[in-house]
Specification:
The protein has 21 helices and 23 strands. The chain is of the alpha+beta class. It has three domains: 2-33; 47-235, Penicillin-binding protein 2a (Domain 2), CATH 3.90.1310.10; 239-279 and 299-478 and 485-601, Beta-lactamase (3-Layer(aba) Sandwich). The strands form seven sheets. Strands 2, 3, 4, 5, 10, 18 and 19 form a seven-stranded mixed sheet that branches. It has a five-stranded antiparallel sheet with strand order 12-11-23-22-21. A three-stranded antiparallel sheet has the order 1-8-9, with no helix packed on it. A hairpin with a 7-residue loop joins β21 (528-534) and β22 (542-549).
């Protein structure tokens, strides 16, 4: 037995010795014979470089490129590799102040001494070419290419949005994708479709010598991963119509929203004052953003989605629709207007007086008395136990038109507007201490009622369609290996009697033929519309207009709000009619060029 154990011991010893010899030979090969190791010894730094994926491009509805990419460079630093250097020469080289350099170096060291941190972003290709020639003098600093946005049409800034550097919240919520120095969509389409547009980052391993110069890829790139570009988007925007709208709204404050009623596609979304989207790219981005953010005219504010205005008389078609739906009136309900709606000490002035035979005529003449009358008939209908119940039913029907509710548009930070219900007035006046006279101004689109320009346009699309609408959206499809068209959501409003629909359309048509909109009729195009003037406690009244065309087969529904511009017929109506004509005819008729010139030259900035 002793011999057996002795033999086993020698076997084990031989195995151990053999393993040691193999390791020694392998180490000898790596350290002495291997050229890879010799190269690593000479160059002593292996750096992983993130390869940023180009963001997806964005096209308009006709295939025109409206958001492109171009290269720029970021300057990064690895604090542990930084040695003493001439800070004044470095600052002069890269164009940075000494205080900002020190601040960024401290921030980088606090983040990690061994991981790269972003030091300076947005160097142009030309600037980086000059920097790169001397960068070997500054160990620990290196450049990295990325793509930034460029805008061939310099338009639609609010709709397209912008990208910016991630913050800690983005990193924590990004599922491990983002790290310090990465960029993310902050607003607009860039934000809503971030996951589609961003693509997927790659990485490459490079050898860097003691002079901070890249010597080539490591292991012939076997460990590199390729970046996958983001998918392209086909938007619903007509960029030429968008540009035209921005031109018409220059030197004015307000909004234009144009929709295709049959699909819910947004044709144009103008927020004024506007700005060149290129201002929020490159090295000057931070400075430009601060300038825009502190501008008293609030050019960063997305008015079409967030600003809420009393809709004024543009609300009257919706008021009529609500009364018709509840059944408190018919399309032939008549009324005689004495020139004001008077109840006790309350008097609501009306610019029309005389006999009103039906709803269509009331819309045509925008009779305040008529709509005060039908509002009270609606909320005081005998089927309701109390005016509170009637008001809540009125509010619920308006919600089906997207009034007082988010429409669900595929853009961030949409506002709700405001439609007061019984809870609001119970808190304001006390339960059962108010009645329909107390809130009579709601019937003519005033009082506490507030609608966003998007809600106004969406309501108009629902009226054009006869009682239903599609969720407004700004992206039609996503390109890829197979183009993916995004689903369109139908929002059914209500079953409307054909006579009711015809009454509303006839009234809005008569506004353009013989009412307040007659002077902005589009030659050869039948259009329907409604002007509105919204009371403004802070200054001159706001000018509003809603409309659609052609009447029988609507291709465009539009809402225009021009702040501090007075009557709806003065500015909002002409701008809307020019926009509709531009979209439908692709040009402005010669006899209407004077109107176009007047709108272009008007300066309404207070």
């Amino acid at each position: 037995m002793t011999d057996v154990y002795q033999n086993r011991r020698w076997v084990i010893q031989y195995v151990v010795i053999a393993v040691i010899i193999v390791y020694v030979l392998r180490l000898f090969q790596i350290q002495v014979l291997s050229k890879n190791y010799q190269q690593l010894a000479r160059n002593n730094v292996l750096r992983e470089v993130t390869v940023f994926a180009p963001r997806g491009l964005i096209f308009d509805r006709k295939g025109r490129l409206i958001v492109d990419n171009q290269n720029e460079y970021d300057l990064w630093v690895v604090p542990s590799q930084v040695t003493a250097f001439d800070t004044a020469a470095f600052c002069a080289l890269v164009g940075i102040s000494d205080s900002l350099l020190r601040q960024n170096l401290l921030k980088a060291a606090a983040y990690s001494r061994y991981k790269p941190s972003l030091l300076l972003k947005g160097l142009s290709v030309e600037k980086y070419a000059a920097v790169q020639e001397e960068l070997y003098l500054y160990p620990g600093f290196f450049g990295q290419v990325r793509t930034i946005r460029s805008y061939p049409y310099k338009a639609a800034a609010h709709l397209l949005g912008y990208i910016g550097e991630v913050n800690q919240r983005h990193i924590e919520q990004g599922g491990g994708y983002y790290r310090m120095g990465d960029y993310i969509g902050i607003s607009g389409i860039e934000h809503s479709y971030e996951n589609v547009l961003r693509g997927r980052k790659g990485s490459r391993f490079v050898l860097v010598d003691v002079h901070n110069r890249e010597q080539g890829s490591f292991a012939e790139g076997r460990y590199d991963t390729a970046a996958i570009p983001g998918a392209n988007l086909i938007s619903t925007i007509d960029i030429e119509l968008q540009q035209y709208g921005e031109l018409l709204m220059q030197n004015k404050i307000g909004s234009i929203v144009a929709l295709e009623p049959s699909t819910g596609e947004v044709l144009a979304l103008v927020s004024s004052p506007n700005y060149d989207p290129a201002l929020l790219t490159g090295m000057e981005r931070t400075r430009n953003f601060q300038r825009l953010a502190t501008d008293s005219l609030r050019p960063l504010f997305v008015r079409p989605l967030k600003a809420a205005y009393p809709p004024g008389s543009t609300f009257k078609p919706a008021m009529a629709l609500t009364a018709l739906k509840i059944g408190s009136i018919t399309s032939t309900t008549e009324y005689t207007c004495p020139g004001a709606y008077v109840v006790g000490t309350l008097s609501v002035t009306c610019h029309h007086s005389g006999y009103v035979p039906d709803v269509a005529t009331a819309i045509q003449h925008s009779c305040n008395s008529y709509f005060c009358h039908i509002f009270r008939k609606t909320v005081d209908d005998r089927r309701f136990a109390h005016v509170a119940q009637g008001l809540d039913q009125w509010k619920a029907i308006l919600a089906t038109l997207g009034i007082g509710e988010r429409t669900g548009i595929d853009l961030p930070n949409e506002g709700y507007g405001f439609v007061p219900g019984s809870d609001y007035y119970n808190k304001l006046y006390g339960k059962n201490r108010w009645n329909s006279v107390t809130v009579i101004s709601l019937g003519i689109g005033q009082g506490e009622l507030g609608m966003t320009p998007l809600q106004l346009a969406n309501m108009t699309a629902a009226l054009a369609n006869g009682g239903w609408w599609y969720t407004p959206h700004v992206v039609r499809s996503v390109q890829g290996s197979q183009e993916r068209r995004l689903p369109t959501v139908v929002r059914h409003v209500m079953d409307l009697d054909t006579a009711h629909v015809n009454a509303l359309r006839r009234g809005m048509f008569q506004v353009m033929e013989a009412g307040t909109g007659r002077w902005v009729r589009i030659p050869g195009v039948s259009s329907a519309g409604k002007t509105g003037t919204a009371e403004n406690p802070h200054g001159r009244d706001h000018s509003l207009f809603i409309g659609f065309a052609p009447v029988d087969s609507p291709r465009i529904a539009i809402a225009v709000v021009v702040e501090n511009a007075g009557w709806g017929a003065s500015f909002a109506a002409p701008i809307a009619s020019l926009m509709m004509e531009k979209y439908l005819n692709d040009t402005i008729a010669f006899q209407r060029r004077y109107l176009e010139q007047r709108m272009l030259e008007a300066d309404l900035i207070p």
